[in-house]
Amino acid sequence: MLQFFAEYKQFSLIIHVFSVIVGMGGALVSDVLFNVYVKDKRINPTENKTLQVLSKVIWISLGVIVLSGLLIFLSDPTGYAKSEKFLLKVIIVAVLIFNGFLFLKITHKALKKIDFIDTNSHHKYVRIRKASFAFGAVSMVSWLSAFVLGSIQSLPVSLSQAVVLYVLVIIIGIIGSQIAEYFIVRKNSL
User: Fold this and answer.
1) Does the pLDDT at position 79 exceed 80?
2) Residue 83 belongs to what domain range?
3) pTM for the full model?
4) DSSP string, 40-81
């Protein structure tokens, strides 16, 4: 059975890399568009539909990434189970899935219900906007990390060091996203 997966490993790799490119591109475009769309304090039906289409593309890409990653793993389970680079990619994909799930459940659904003009919903809007920027930061850091990992031969550090570095970059990204959110809101309110 391993021979079968080893024979088709190159095909699985091509599908995997293509899915990462499509997913990363969709996520980055979605993050940028989302932040542009909420600047006017409303998401109109066309903007919402665009974000929904991009969301579907990202989720399909993540599904194909998981499936093709499993096929790649099955081509050499012993080798990949020992590969720190592969294990880090698994962690990053898990973070992407969890982050996307939280974004859908917390931010995306809430934004449909918020009346941005109503001053009583202003405080809820601020929390949702801050959360959306944070989710976007986690998404960007994770997709770019997966891309970089795909571009290098092996990890130059141990798995634990790489995870700590990844978490630190996520924290820096979230802090940066909150600073950006503050200046964008301040600029738009002047």
Assistant:
1) yes
2) 2-189
3) 0.86
4) GT---HHHHHHHHHHHHHHHHHHHHHHHHHHHHHHHSHHHHH
